[in-house]
Design a protein that fits this description.
Elements: E1 2-4, H1 11-20, H2 28-47, E2 52-58, E3 63-69, E4 73-79, H3 83-92, E5 97-102, E6 104-107, E7 113-116, E8 120-121, E9 129-133, E10 136-137, H4 141-150, E11 158-167, H5 168-177, E12 183-191, E13 193-194, E14 200-201, H6 207-212
Parallel strand pairs: 1-12, 4-5, 4-9, 9-11, 10-11, 11-12
Antiparallel strand pairs: 2-3, 5-8, 6-7, 13-14
Helix pairs in contact: 1-2, 2-3
The chain binds uracil.
Length: 216
């Protein structure tokens, strides 16, 4: 199932326009804050599809029969670009456990690149509801490798994959390589083009650099 939140105008569209804008995005604090606010919006929208149970809650004046979240949430993200959106998700799923995984592109001298994963920190994922977020789903490779690495820590009940901007190619690869029934995809926008270096066009540029500064 693919949910594209940007299809209906909302504050997400406003924040995304600022994130894409080549002048406004230079303000790193605003860039990170907008990603964080978008993480919160995704968390809220995803929460509508989760499992709740009713509980009797004692108020100062009586007993309220109240729905409370019953799924065990694990929030996963890909270092480093995923951190601001992850923070937003964690603001809303405040009791969630967290998984972090590093992924970087190692460019081959002859062209092309491989994704290298060198670090992972994760709780058991057995029977969890896993939500993995990364701002950009470009080739899809980082997300696919991250998912495959993470599920070595147990089989989630369901996984939600979240990206602010996805390419058509990234979506195709995720759908081809990951188990359809166990996965929902949540996107802000879908852009058509991918450069030879797997940057999304029009996209926003390099999310990690914009949030945290250039790397060597
Ligand atoms: N990662 C980014 O930060 N930007 C892209 O366009 C693709 C991958």
């Amino acid at each position: 199932m693919i949910n594209i939140l940007g299809k209906n105008n909302s504050l997400l569209s406003q924040y995304l326009s600022e994130i894409r804008d080549k002048d406004i995005q230079k303000d790193r604090l605003r860039f990170r804050k907008n990603l964080e606010r978008i993480g919160e919006i995704f968390a809220y929208e995803i929460s509508k599809s989760l499992n709740f149970e009713t509980k009797d809650i004692q108020t100062p004046l009586g007993t309220a029969n109240q729905a409370v979240l019953s799924d065990k949430i694990v929030l996963g993200t890909i270092l480093r670009a995923g951190l601001p959106m992850h923070t937003g998700m964690l603001n809303f799923f405040d009791k969630a456990d967290n998984a972090f995984i590093s992924a970087y592109r190692k460019y081959n001298p002859g062209g092309g690149f491989e994704i290298k994963i060198e670090y992972m920190s994760s709780p058991s994922l057995e029977d969890s509801t896993l939500i993995i977020s990364d701002p950009m789903l470009a080739s899809g490779l980082s997300m696919i490798l991250a998912y495959k690495e993470l599920i070595k820590r147990g089989k989630p009940k369901h996984t939600h994959i979240v990206a602010l901007i996805a390419s058509q190619e990234g979506i195709k690869q995720v759908q081809k390589q990951l188990p359809k029934d166990d996965i929902s995809i949540w996107l802000g926008a879908v852009d058509d083009e991918l450069t030879v270096k797997s940057y999304i066009v029009p996209g926003l540029g390099d999310a990690g650099d914009l949030a945290f500064g250039n790397k060597e």
